[in-house]
Write a structure and sequence with these properties.
Two copies of one chain form a homodimer.
Chain A: E1 4-5, H1 7-13, H2 18-26, E2 33-35, E3 38-42, H3 43-57, H4 62-72, H5 80-124
Antiparallel strand pairs in A: 1-3, 2-3
Helix pairs in contact in A: 3-4
The structure holds a DNA duplex (30 and 30 nucleotides).
Chain lengths: 127, 127
Amino acid sequence: MKQTYSITELSREFDATPRTLRFYEDQGLLNPGRRGMTRVYSDRDRTRLKLALRGRRLGLTVEECKEIIDMYDPSRPRNARQLLRLCEKIREHRATLLEKFRDIEATLNAMDEVERRCLEELLAAPA
Amino acid sequence: MKQTYSITELSREFDATPRTLRFYEDQGLLNPGRRGMTRVYSDRDRTRLKLALRGRRLGLTVEECKEIIDMYDPSRPRNARQLLRLCEKIREHRATLLEKFRDIEATLNAMDEVERRCLEELLAAPA
DNA sequence: GTAAAAGTTGACGTGCACGTCAACTATAGA
DNA sequence: TCTATAGTTGACGTGCACGTCAACTTTTAC
């Protein structure tokens, strides 16, 4: 686990572009330090980027990713009220994820069915 | 299972807007018949809409949804070559779905961890 | 020291998935 | 028959997530 990363280093590791990292910084998702003018990304930035890209793959907006990542950030101190609210949010978030889970399940099942019919047809009418 | 649906009927059932259904028609995803000027949606349209919205929730583009839905359409006759190609596409598609699956799994695990810490903190420092 | 490579800040462009009028038409119920 | 209700076709607008220059500065390698 390295300590710092350049912009191209990080963007290559996660198959993103520098533009995307700068955009995420504009949106407040990343907070790289500077050495002169050059951005220096920390392991925290790396983790947040990784989580953000994961969220994007699942169809979340960048804003939603930020909210969730901020909320889950372990370095954030919280009082009891905030902790309860976080638990509530986790329940909500879990529910939407489970919905996506079911969507994927349904799609996989449909695909299995199509594949089955496909193989049947191939056996029935070979080339 | 009804035979036909009006545009508002279908859009309400799936929590979409009429605009969305017309847009999907423009994109070639839906093919409603007409009674006069009025669109009449069939069960086939209903199924395709359902699949499309499911795909959208998973982050696919409308174009991708259309391609997949068209490919899987059971009413399409196919020769052996096309059947083999379909099997190939199914494998690919399954792979990307499994990736999303893992993304969700990873996120759920992260959430469990956060929740655990959250409950711990609540016990340690009650209001 | 100098050339190449990497980085920077604007600023405008783009593709997607609709939203949102406007202006009009068709249809069903009182 | 009149009127509300639902539907139609444009056409333009919008929010998001970057892509794509341009013009410039910095850093690294030799």
